[in-house]
Design goal:
mainly alpha, Growth Hormone, Chain: A, about 85% helix, about 0% strand, globular
């Protein structure tokens, strides 16, 4: 009799971890994506030029937060730190909502909110995956990360759907309260996940104090993430891969921002449009993560996850450079966002399964937050320069297609290197 592999290939202990991780990431990304349309609306109010300038401030604060987070990881137990980070976001959303209710037209507050959420959203996701990488080994990440990531995608689907349905009745402040509620639930789920991690520890029942030892602060230098990356060619490769993600994302992001700004004058309507677009893309992604991501990673290899979308972007951006039509650009936008969450993001996280624990927190946070936002700011300013030189959208697209080709080559190298790394 032929043994059929189950659709959900996990054992009992893994199933509990996956389910809790699924729900935790659902709340984290659900809370963020419910609020993200508010950020995008703020971008349209401030204007594209002002928003591009804010990306510079976002990069600066992303750099500053790396040693601060490194100090927290070095000194605070993860059972305290991780729930506290989600609790901080809940309180921050509540405080922002109260301030917006008092002064909805406060542009200084709008700028602070835009920069703050742009920094924290990357950190929140990075922190989640750092902990999952500590729980699961390399083989498990290939099987299970697609399912866990689907929780985040489901949250990223439900969050903007709720915003789209209710923003005209509860306003942008009400949306912020909704995001705060989801992060409050995330605090509880993180505590549950921590307890489950202790239960599956091989040494938990055989060694006194083993649980406490596992949870102890990492110690070390708060700036260690910088040196860990610079000394490791593999981590440098991951860093360059993130730069490639940013290059393509930045070009498509500002093209989208300009289009929505021109077509929709009403503020809440813009928020509704952004939320609807998020919902469509995330609906495609969750199906892919449940059916394709794990299959590709385990059967075809991590390299396929990493290079497929970059190659498609080379083709799509080149076609746009030739045709100059928005229809082609719109298709490229949808494919990029779908592919990033269905393939690129899980693949990026799997790459970190072969590095040591300190790198999983400190180096990973540096790459996910500071490097990503520095690249965003750099490419945003580069786009300004290209436009100042009277380069049209199609010419910019051709330039971005060249960067996407380099991104694909880097992804191929990382996939090959990952298979050779021990761990």
């Amino acid at each position: 009799m032929t043994n059929k592999k189950p659709w959900f290939p996990v054992n009992g202990a893994e199933a509990r971890i996956v389910l809790t991780g699924f729900m935790l990431l659902f709340c984290v990304l659900g809370g963020y994506f419910a609020v993200r349309p508010v950020r995008e609306t703020i971008g349209t109010i401030l204007g594209r030029a002002a928003t591009q300038d804010l990306w510079v401030f976002t990069a600066i604060f992303a750099i500053l937060i790396v040693p601060f987070y490194g100090a927290l990881v070095a000194r605070v137990k993860r059972s305290v730190l991780l729930p506290a980070i989600y609790g901080f976001m809940a309180l921050a959303f509540i405080a922002t909502a109260l301030l917006f209710q008092q002064d909805p037209e406060n542009k200084t507050l709008a700028r602070v909110f835009y920069v703050g959420i742009s920094v924290m959203n990357l950190m929140l996701v990075s922190v989640f995956w750092s902990f999952m990488l500590e729980i699961l080994n390399s083989e498990q990440t290939k099987r299970l990360f697609g399912f866990i990531a689907a929780g985040g995608t489901a949250g990223a689907l439900v969050g903007p759907l709720l915003t789209s349905l209710f923003v005209t009745r509860i306003g942008n402040s009400g949306v912020l309260y909704l995001g705060a509620a989801l992060f409050a639930v995330a605090v509880v789920l993180q505590r549950v996940l921590m307890a489950q991690w202790h239960l599956i520890a091989p040494e938990a029942t055989s060694q006194a104090g083993a649980k406490s030892e596992r949870d102890r602060a990492l110690g070390g230098n708060p700036f260690a993430g910088f040196m860990l990356v610079m000394r490791n060619p593999y981590l440098i490769g991951i860093m360059l891969f993130v730069v490639g993600v940013s290059a393509v994302n930045t070009f498509l992001y500002f093209e989208q921002l300009e289009l929505v700004e021109k077509q929709f004058a009403e503020i809440t309507k813009r928020t509704q449009v952004f939320a609807s677009l998020d919902a469509i893309v995330q609906g495609m992604v969750v199906i892919s993560q449940l059916t394709l991501t794990g299959f590709i990673a385990t059967r075809l290899g991590l390299t396929v996850l990493l290079v497929t979308i970059p190659i498609v972007m080379v083709f799509g951006l080149t076609v746009f450079a030739i045709s100059g039509t928005f229809v082609v650009l719109a298709v490229a936008m949808v494919i990029r966002r779908w592919g990033e969450y269905a393939f690129i993001r899980p693949g990026r996280e799997m790459l970190f399964s072969k590095v040591d624990r300190e790198s999983k927190y400190k180096a990973k946070n540096l790459i996910d937050v500071a490097v990503y936002r520095i690249a965003d700011a750099g490419f945003a300013q580069l786009k300004n320069v290209l436009e100042a030189l009277k380069m049209s959208g199609p010419v910019e697209a051709l330039f971005t297609a060249g960067l996407a080709a380099l991104w694909a080559i880097n992804g191929w190298w990382l996939g090959r290197r990952h298979e050779k790394e021990k761990g």
